[in-house]
């Protein structure tokens, strides 16, 4: 996607020479082999900002939940604490529905982290002039690879060699063919996670930005409403697929 200017771009431009030098350590781009520029560091820094913000939110929410026993009546207004509770509660219920309560509790740290990072990264698209980490293939592919590595580790930990054996299928005479097909299917999973999220968010951010810049203040509202829908759906899809992949990897009966 074409590079765009955000407030982070303007801030990083003051350290352009340093970033230009350090960007060379990132290596050439994966698809077209281009040399990275100082602007190539923007999605990484934006993702780090989101990660730090999530840590702060987590610490504040943890402190709030620690005092929750003192509250007799729940808060009537929507606060940070109630938002976190509703947000994580929704995805925990979804995980319980897909993989059962026992595994949902066991693997919820990865599921919740995926939901939070993708949601708050996507939400930046609704703030004019903000960088959106999930419009970068490098960031979304990194998220997909984290999920890929961890659900394979979970699968091997739960099922041992049977996790690798099931890739060959149930029939020995089809084992060579099935192993190749299943391996390709496994490897493609992080790519589908990354490409789906990146393309949807990049196009959404581009459309909202264009109409917000060209039209009056109230006219872009329908497009911003569509943007909100897109960011929610993409968060739901990414988190749901993460949960499904974990469920498939850790299902004992399937192996």
Please tell me about this protein's structure:
The structure is a single chain. With 255 residues, this protein is an all-alpha fold. It has one domain. 71% of the residues lie in helices and 0% in strands. The chain is built from nine helices and no strands. The protein has helices spanning 7-12, 16-23, 42-66, 80-99, 101-123, 137-159, 161-165, 175-214, 221-250. Helix 6 (137-159) runs antiparallel to helix 8 and helix 8 (175-214) packs antiparallel against helix 9 (221-250). The protein is globular, with a radius of gyration of 21 Å. The relative contact order is 0.12. The mean pLDDT is 81.
Which terms would index this structure?
71% helix, mainly alpha, 255 residues
- What percent strand? under 5%
Number of helices: 9
State the secondary-structure class: mainly alpha
Low-confidence stretches: none
The total beta strand count reads 0
Order of helices and strands: HHHHHHHHH
Characterize the biggest β-sheet.
Answer: none
Shape: globular
Radius of gyration: 21 Å
Question: How would the blueprint of this fold be written?
Answer:
Elements: H1 7-12, H2 16-23, H3 42-66, H4 80-99, H5 101-123, H6 137-159, H7 161-165, H8 175-214, H9 221-250
In short:
With 255 residues, the protein is mostly helical. The protein has helices at 7-12, 16-23, 42-66, 80-99, 101-123, 137-159, 161-165, 175-214, 221-250.
């Amino acid at each position: 996607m074409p590079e765009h200017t955000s407030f982070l771009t303007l801030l990083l431009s003051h350290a352009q020479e340093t970033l230009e030098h350090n960007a060379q350590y990132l290596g050439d781009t994966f698809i077209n082999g281009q040399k990275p520029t100082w602007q190539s560091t923007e999605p990484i820094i934006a993702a780090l900002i989101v990660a730090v913000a999530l840590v702060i939110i987590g610490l504040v929410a943890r402190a709030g939940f620690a005092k929750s026993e003192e509250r007799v009546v729940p808060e009537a207004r929507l606060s940070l604490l109630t938002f976190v509770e509703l947000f994580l509660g929704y995805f925990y219920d979804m995980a319980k529905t897909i993989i059962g309560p026992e595994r949902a509790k066991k693997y919820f740290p990865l599921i919740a982290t995926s939901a939070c990072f993708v949601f708050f990264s996507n939400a930046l698209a609704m703030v004019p002039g903000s960088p959106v980490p999930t419009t970068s293939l490098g960031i979304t592919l990194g998220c997909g690879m984290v999920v890929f590595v961890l659900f394979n580790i979970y699968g091997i930990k739960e099922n041992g060699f049977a996790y690798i054996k099931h890739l060959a299928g149930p029939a020995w005479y089809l084992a060579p063919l099935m192993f190749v097909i299943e391996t390709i299917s496994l490897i493609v999973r992080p790519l589908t996670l990354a490409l789906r999220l990146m393309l949807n968010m990049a196009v959404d951010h581009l459309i909202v930005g264009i109409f917000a810049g060209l039209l009056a203040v109230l006219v872009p509202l329908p497009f911003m409403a569509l943007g909100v829908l897109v960011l929610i759906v993409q968060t739901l899809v990414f988190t749901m697929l993460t949960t499904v992949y974990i469920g498939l990897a850790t299902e004992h009966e399937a192996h």
